[in-house]
Fold this protein.
Amino acid sequence: MTGSDVHHEPTLPLPRIAVIGRQNVGKSTLVNRLFGRRETISHDLPGVTRDRVEVEAAWRGRRFSLVDTAGYLRTAQGVEALARAQADRAIEQADLILLVVDAQAGITEEDGALAKRLRGATVPVLVAANKVDTDREEADAAAFHSLGLGEPFAVSAMHGRSAGDLLDRIVQLLPDAPRETATTAVEPRFALVGRPNVGKSSLFNRLAGQDRSVVFEEAGTTRDAVDALVEWPDGPVRFVDTAGMRRATKLRGVEYYSVVRATQAIGRADVALLLLDAEQGYTVEDKKIANVVIGEGRALMLVANKWDLVEDKDDTYAALVQTARQFASAPVMRTSAKTGRGVHRLPPALLDLRERWTSRVPTSKVNEVVQQAQRERPTPRSAGTLHYATQVATSPPSFVIFGGAREPDPAYRRYIENRLRRTFRLEGVPVRVTYRPRKRRGGTSR
Ligand code: GDP
């Protein structure tokens, strides 16, 4: 990709990197080395706010922007305050933070203050230990492990040492698009799906029916799909494709209605409420839909409707919960759309589930969980130790785990996934985990 190609593309929002660190650690030299003339597309984008300068850059075809978060620091007083302001600013504005430290100088008070703040960051943080000009100094770089931000990258801005490795890691961790900010956020979107006659329309009427403020809106994407915008006390929510929900199945058959159409609705939603007939339990079709929800990366809530008809309530509930474990341990709610029982629990549970689907976890916490999991159950010997883990995206939460000689076996991957799910309350939320084994010695490191 050449500079001019990039220049003429429409300016889509790019993921943002903030490079921070105290003075004299070699930030500018490193920035030039990493994103230097050839790779940097040298024009300044006027930032959204006056005090932000963004420079566009690219590596291996991935484009991103570098944000300069230094400008606004002049007001901060004292080392602690300065560090805090710098870190906060980066956390607020960037999708990835590169903390530059000086390996020759060792850990300073300011490095410590920055790291302390960054350990709570919910975006990936990488540590570049600069001025490692020779192999002998690699040990100095390793000392920065104690900052609690994962394994430091030993680099030399002067000689270009390991710059390629660091850039590779950066682009691996970058999300495709910048984080959603408050201004781009839309109302929570729910899809009510399930087989015919399980009670979808009845439940929808309970959730919205009496409310005069329901607004129906054509979705535009799917022909004849009509969304319902419902005012809840916490704000408006959207039920996607209510028409699809009501439409008789006879037209095109059960399969089309409940799977194909549901899939379209699920694709436009944050959370899918999969309605089951509680008396019947999971049918093959219900499982199919549940798998679509998880496959599409949407959060899943299982709603066992017609609960009023269930006789052996304890056993039925236990069986439903047991099977839910194969669907991201989705919560199982019990309702009767007929009597209205249990329905009031759905709105808060749905909003909570949606919140967790969009959640971010600080890198230090992710690392802690993965390290603790390995202490309790070591990875198979041939797979090797997992070194560094971080969340790289949300909606659904996606994690990248580095280290080891190869990806662990499926059983171990499930173990890690369940651990992350349990610790971060991600029940009902699909969790994506990508493994990036260590490169073999003698591999590329340009
Ligand atoms: P949909 O096809 O999924 O939209 O299902 P409907 O909402 O049209 O409901 C199908 C039938 O089940 C209707 O006769 C409803 O009265 C009945 N129904 C819905 N929910 C319940 C419930 O919780 N308990 C009982 N006993 N019947 C219900």
Remarks:
- The chain is about 35% helix and 20% strand.
- Confidence is low (pLDDT under 50) at residues 1-10, 38-52, 442-446.
- The chain has three domains: 16-173, 189-357, 363-436.
